[in-house]
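Field log, afternoon session.

UNIT: design team B
ACTIVITY: writing a sequence onto a fixed backbone
BACKBONE:
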């Protein structure tokens, strides 16, 4: 057995005050597990489960799996048990995890910002077709996510992924979760610096490394050298963001402590300059602080953001420099925050004269068949590769200018448009009740129906008409996998009372944003919307915005000052909204 607490050299921690009560921080000698998750990791290193999957569980079937592996260590292999069909959202908090388990798995494949060759896209599609009932989703962590995976098929899937240069290793669990990288790294004309080599080095050194496989909880990484900050750096545990030092040139600032869920916090900026070759070392330092000083007593306070909040960014930098790097970081003013799109949808010129093309699956839902069709088009049109985005989109890299128009038409024909409506472009959704054991409401299907209905009601309404994008982020529970709090319209799934009955619905967050206007939006007291009434509610909300806004006023700016009655949209407002939508049509 591997005890991961003792594989790394303990820090000196001479300048860090000991907390008044133990939070399970290893650096202070609190090495006894304080909850069942920590106990399971102490009992056996999570990475060891890979061998049992290959040699025992895949050969003897689902019933042979140790429960501690099934609902714990399997996550380090990118596997979660899938929600059993037939249980509505009211059962989510009432039934045990065991009762909600289906004998199938959700599997996440990490891409870590890598460029996926046509053959790799084809391999991903073939796995969906052959092993996952033709499922595949593009997630907002640049993963491909499958469903209906049988334990007996996992070795064959892993072999196919390995041949394609991909892995599911540590795609879940208290581990270095899949990295977010700029989808246009190395090709965007406006790029400050290409950080691809740093992400590759972090992956080479630390993924599968026992020293970094037991964090207090998940640890999310983002890196971009694009001035559009296209990896949501504000909401990750550690982010490296392209910057320019007046003397040293391009490098990266360091942001730490971002995260959403029930206690959302935006990352804090250190205001430093890190050269490309040092990024992996600094990542190791930040990850080591989290491992050694992170809170392990309560899972609800085990994210890095709580440590950063308690220490402050100055103390965090001091510990990073003195105890882990052994040198001072170069100070540099943090880069300005951008405004506008980060998803790279549409056709854009690359620095080499070729084009990259951003395409929009609706709410991230694709399929194995669709990925195979995409691979066919990539090969036919000589596309260099594809990258997934943190906004559930796909970007095709290296398209010859003379083939663009024909490629766009072919993409439209298979349902992957580079010319989507404002609603199709700007709607994201998490996995939801269909497969997730934490979810309370349906999300993917509801989001797709919402997009279809808004396109029908507002067929000619463009982003220019709307004064910019209005993002709709649909989440099935409070965990904010679809970044509910930073959407223009954030929808958090819950059960609501309607005409004396509990039905699926949403708590509404309005006006959230990242970038220059980064904030968590406005939450109206006791304001809930039923899932069935969502189309009408958003129609009335948009109609009220169009009628009440001032010239040039964005949706988020309007939300911040609008009367609550306009934001709530009662039944009369919803009828007015439907009439306006009809007039617009």
């Amino acid at each position: 057995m591997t005890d991961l607490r003792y594989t790394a050299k303990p820090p000196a921690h001479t300048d860090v005050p000991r907390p008044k009560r133990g939070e399970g921080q290893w650096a202070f000698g609190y090495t006894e597990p304080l909850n069942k998750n920590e106990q399971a990791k102490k009992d056996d290193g999570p990475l060891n489960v890979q061998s049992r999957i290959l040699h025992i569980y895949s050969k003897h079937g689902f019933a042979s799996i140790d429960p501690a592996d099934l609902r714990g260590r399997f996550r380090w292999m990118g596997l979660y048990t899938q929600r059993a069909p037939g249980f509505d959202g009211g059962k989510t908090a009432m039934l045990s995890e065991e009762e909600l388990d289906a004998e199938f798995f959700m599997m996440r494949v990490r891409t870590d910002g890598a460029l996926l060759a046509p053959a790799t896209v084809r391999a991903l599609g073939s796995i969906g077709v052959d092993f996952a009932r033709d499922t595949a989703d593009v997630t907002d962590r640049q993963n491909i996510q499958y469903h209906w995976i049988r334990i007996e098929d996992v070795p064959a899937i892993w072999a196919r992924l390995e041949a394609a240069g991909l892995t599911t290793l540590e795609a879940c669990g208290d581990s270095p979760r899949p990295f977010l990288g700029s989808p246009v790294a190395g090709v965007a004309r406006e790029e400050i610096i290409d950080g691809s080599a740093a992400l590759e080095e972090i992956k080479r050194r630390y993924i599968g490394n026992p020293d970094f496989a037991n964090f207090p909880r998940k640890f999310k990484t983002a890196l971009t050298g694009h001035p559009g900050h296209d990896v949501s750096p504000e909401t990750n545990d550690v982010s490296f963001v392209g910057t320019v030092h007046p003397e040293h040139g391009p490098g990266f600032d360091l942001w730490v402590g971002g995260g959403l869920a029930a206690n959302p916090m935006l990352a804090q900026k250190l205001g430093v300059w890190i050269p490309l070759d040092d990024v992996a070392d600094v990542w190791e330092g930040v990850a080591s602080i989290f491992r050694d000083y992170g809170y392990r007593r309560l899972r609800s306070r085990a994210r890095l953001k709580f440590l950063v909040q308690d220490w402050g960014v100055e103390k965090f930098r001091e510990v990073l420099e003195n105890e882990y790097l052994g040198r001072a970081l170069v100070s540099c003013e943090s880069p300005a925050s951008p405004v506008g799109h980060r998803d790279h949808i549409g056709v854009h010129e690359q620095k080499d004269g070729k084009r990259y093309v951003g395409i929009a699956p609706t709410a991230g839902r694709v399929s194995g068949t669709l990925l195979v069709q995409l691979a066919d088009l990539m090969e036919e049109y000589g596309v260099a590769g594809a990258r997934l985005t943190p906004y559930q989109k796909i970007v095709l890299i290296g398209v010859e200018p003379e083939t663009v128009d024909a490629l766009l038409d072919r993409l439209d024909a298979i349902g992957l448009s580079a010319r989507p409506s404002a609603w199709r472009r700007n709607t994201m959704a998490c996995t939801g009740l269909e497969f997730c054991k934490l979810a309370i409401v349906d999300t993917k299907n509801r989001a797709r129906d919402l997009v279809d209905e808004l396109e029908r009601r507002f067929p000619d309404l463009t982003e220019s008409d709307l004064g910019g994008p209005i993002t709709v982020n649909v989440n099935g529970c409070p965990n904010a996998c679809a970044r509910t709090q930073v959407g223009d319209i954030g929808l958090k799934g819950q059960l609501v009372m309607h005409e004396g009955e509990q039905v699926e619905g949403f708590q509404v967050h309005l006006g959230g944003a990242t970038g220059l206007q980064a904030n968590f939006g406005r939450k109206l007291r006791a304001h809930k919307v039923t899932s069935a009434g969502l189309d009408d509610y958003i129609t009335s909300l948009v109609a009220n915005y169009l009628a009440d806004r001032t010239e040039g006023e964005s949706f988020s700016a309007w939300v911040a000052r609008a009367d609550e009655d306009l934001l709530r949209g009662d039944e009369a407002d919803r009828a007015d909204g439907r009439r306006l939508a009809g007039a617009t049509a």
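LOG NOTE: The longest strand covers residues 489-498.
NEXT ACTIVITY: expression trials, pending approval
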